[in-house]
Write a sequence for this structure.
DNA sequence: ACCTGAACACCGTTCAAGT
DNA sequence: ACCTGAACACCGTTCAAGT
């Protein structure tokens, strides 16, 4: 298979990340006003301060005091920019757990820390599509999880699948939560009314337990899934 | 809190779904060429045949042989259309498991069936944001899960949190998978090269086990997470 | 060698005007 | 009462032209 410059490589694939690291040295030929890092950081700032839908090339150029066209000297498309910014964010979201905890407490702490980070930066969440997975910061996070899970007896393959499941679940549950914020008390009340108004013959449980079910919130759902994953690890290291 | 017509309600919230069902009767005043159902179905067709980025109001109108403006008689925004189409898709993705299986096999079958459906319709996946959660078809799915999990001894609250965790995990893992398709053999080979090229001091495990880790694929990761959730249910019904 | 202005081909949404 | 054409204010991306 030939590597042809004409066929564009999809951002976030192994091929794309690889090409990026291999061409790293011949990058900075001259002093520039702009840098890729600065652009990615500014993108994150825009996401935090103005939300996901504000991340446009025009808005970014405005913040950087340059033309939109100038951005395309550092990045071949908006997609590419998003992938790079997301891996950058993964670096920011990666916090070291307090020492002295057992593996279960450590993993729990990390999952909660990551979730809290994402909830505090909701603008990032729509862009987390797995394409950041092979970026340098994401790989640092993976290395950390691999170290932890292999240290307690999982095989390398198991540790990788486990870490992926954790990441998937945390990101997925935050996306789910932000889709409709169930912490809003009024939303909760209306959800109850919605359940109550259903056809009791087709929805016997939802109608009968409308009040109770309307109270089940995102933290509860997250706690269940997280405990499940931790239990599964416990089973696999003892067996 | 007053319900003001001037303040738009975010699509997918309880308030929005509620208003929709309550105003259902005074909808069809006259015969129309277009219907909401037809529009939503056409949207799904576009997603399946042309992919996620092809779902524009112009493209939709073209398929329906009407003007873009006509769509806005049935839907107040593209967001709304997406939410409705996604709930519709949830109805299509809901398949009844073969009878006679135990709870674990049944749940496993359903999770795989849902995953297969999403993988077969990748155009849907970017739009699953949890906003479809309270739609009629999604609620039918929820009722099904609730029935299963309460039947084996979980409380209603536990059953709801469990079902949510399952849904979150399935959707999240498919999003993750489609972000970068790791079933591509060339991608796998390149991923190995990517791992091998990392700094061994900062990434000791990834570099040492590059080949093995590059082989871990999406089915394996999914199997781990699913087994974990099923184990967790088993623990909770026996304890 | 680097950056820009202006354009191109798209978006979602609105609204006066038609029938 | 219903639908439309045409416009508005945006997008991402390109490229000849500047310095």
């Amino acid at each position: 298979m030939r590597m042809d410059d004409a066929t564009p490589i999809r951002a976030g694939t192994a091929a794309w990340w690889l090409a990026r690291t291999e061409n790293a040295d011949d990058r900075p030929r001259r002093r520039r006003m702009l840098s890729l890092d600065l652009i990615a950081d500014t993108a994150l700032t825009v996401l935090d301060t103005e939300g996901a839908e504000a991340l446009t090339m025009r808005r970014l150029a405005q913040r950087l005091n340059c033309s939109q066209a100038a951005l395309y000297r550092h990045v071949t498309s908006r997609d590419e920019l998003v992938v790079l910014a997301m891996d950058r964010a993964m670096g920011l979201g990666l916090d070291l757990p307090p020492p002295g905890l057992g593996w279960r407490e450590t993993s729990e702490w990390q999952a909660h820390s990551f979730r809290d980070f994402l909830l505090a930066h909701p603008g990032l969440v729509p862009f987390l599509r797995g394409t950041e997975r092979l970026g340098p910061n994401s790989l640092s996070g993976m290395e950390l999880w691999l170290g932890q899970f292999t240290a307690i007896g999982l095989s390398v393959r198991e540790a990788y699948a486990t870490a992926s499941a954790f990441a998937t679940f945390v990101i997925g549950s935050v996306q789910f939560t932000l889709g409709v914020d169930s912490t809003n008390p009024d939303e909760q009340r209306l959800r109850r009314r919605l359940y109550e108004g259903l056809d009791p013959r087709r929805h016997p449980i939802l109608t009968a337990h409308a009040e109770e079910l309307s109270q089940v919130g995102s933290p509860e759902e997250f706690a269940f899934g997280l405990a499940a994953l931790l239990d599964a690890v416990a089973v696999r290291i003892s067996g």
